[in-house]
DNA sequence: GCCAACGTTGGC
DNA sequence: GCCAACGTTGGC
């Protein structure tokens, strides 16, 4: 059982979109970074905890909790020539991009990025590291416990 | 809109 | 394999 922080632009998929999706589940489409893909393909498992983070928006921060709810499978958007995530170099036989599904757990009052930075307990969080751009980052159990028990 | 940071591309 | 150029991310 591991813990993760996953960034989503709320314009594309917000915590409310996840809560209102069929089965409260969405496929995590559009990741086009190998390190993030490898997390989904190789390490993430059903039941892993997810901090759902809103990025590139007026109020960036943690907006709720979710869980990994599928094993890895090919991201369908890579085969869709009309999708912004289309990848002409990927094939059905050997898909380049894999994803997992995420299921809604709960929404919380936004824990702003600035608020996260105020806590020494979270100083080592990957998402807070200078220059971090990775859209999926591992979260330690201590960080998870602090955020879910003390900040929610 | 700016810009720092980082990943990817492609010429050599 | 190096590395400069370029594109993207994402907070501010």
TrEMBL record:
A Pfam family that the UniProt record links to this protein: EVE
UniProt cross-references to InterPro entries, sorted A to Z: 5hmC_binding (IPR052181), EVE_domain (IPR002740), PUA-like_sf (IPR015947), THYN1-like_EVE (IPR047197)
EVE domain residues: 2-149
Family annotation (CDD domains): EVE
Residues of the signal peptide: none
Protein name: EVE domain-containing protein
Origin species: Paraburkholderia tagetis
